[in-house]
Amino acid sequence: MIPLPADLPQPEPAASLPTPAMLRETAAYIASVQRADGEIPWESGSHTDVWDHVECAMALGVTGEYAAADAAFAWLRATQRADGTWPTKLQDGVIEESGADTNQCTYVAVGVWHHWLVRRDRAFVESMWPTVRAALDFAVTMQLPFGGFSWAFGEFGPATTALVTGSSSIHHALQCGERLADLLGEDASAWRGARERVAVALQRREEEFEPKRRFSMDWYYPALGGALTGDAAYARIEGRWEDFVVPGLGILCVDDAPWVTGAETCELALALEGMGDRARAERLVLDMQHLRDPDGSYHTGYVYADGKRWPIERSTWTGAAVILACDALLDLTPGAEVFRP
Q1: C-alpha distances in Å from residue 20, one per residue of 63, 267, 297, 322, 323
Q2: CB 80, CB 129: distance < 8 Å
Q3: For domain 20-339, is the CATH number 1.10.3720.10?
Q4: On the chain, which terminus has fewer CB atoms closer than 10 Å, C or N?
Q5: What torsion do the CA atoms of 267, 270, 276, 281 make, to the nearest 10 degrees?
Q6: Is the entire prediction scored with pTM above 0.90?
Q7: Cis status of the peptide bond prior to 311, with omega within 30 of 0
């Protein structure tokens, strides 16, 4: 961990987790950013990617913003391409990056399973099933021989490398897809096989993934995505705790810059909660509350060497991560189960 400056006052951590009323304020901010067609960008006037859009839809469901959540899922149905993908980046409905990020595309399965946990609406699951099936079938075609998933597909075909974070998230998405298939009586054997292969790769062949060790996500995502559980998950988290956790502020995005980020902090909290370590999970969510604005929105990060929030944005997906972490810690809805093994 990069030390805190001795001569620069830092924000005080919150004394208690956000209340349900405070989480509804955060959801209202997310809904205020949503476009008329259901798309949820990073913030007003910014771009959209599908992973963060799904995360926001999940948070809206937790807080009872059902119309906004359903509009977000309708947007996914309407904009999915024939091959099961979405563009990597859109701005005001215009494609800015036409390639596909494998991890982004598969996250729809997590969102739909979460929707089922919260609302038990079988008709909704049935309406989303073709979308989920196409996205996960696409992912299976992107699995590399060692088990990791090619992280992207572009004009020159699939990338030749896999990322720990993305493959860990795909592991979780495939697991959620299997559960949806079981619910609907559909065959998920191909997804199950792909999930089992990527789990082995994450457990035993990490050296074959593209190295991204400076990123905190590569540290905790195998635990968050369920590829590592029990003692293996604990060993991984303990192994780099001191490298990334900044007491009182949150966790670093990368290990070589004094920049804590709220979404990563809440994701680590979700991983810890799923491992049964609620005390440290709650502490992390409390520590990052300095990023909250009075209207319930959250800033993306804080550079503690300068005492300044950075970048100058209030990202919808940071607010969504807070809502999901608090749901898990407070058991506000059955959706709290979605990141538990």
Answers
A1: 8, 19, 14, 12, 9
A2: no
A3: no
A4: C
A5: 70
A6: yes
A7: yes
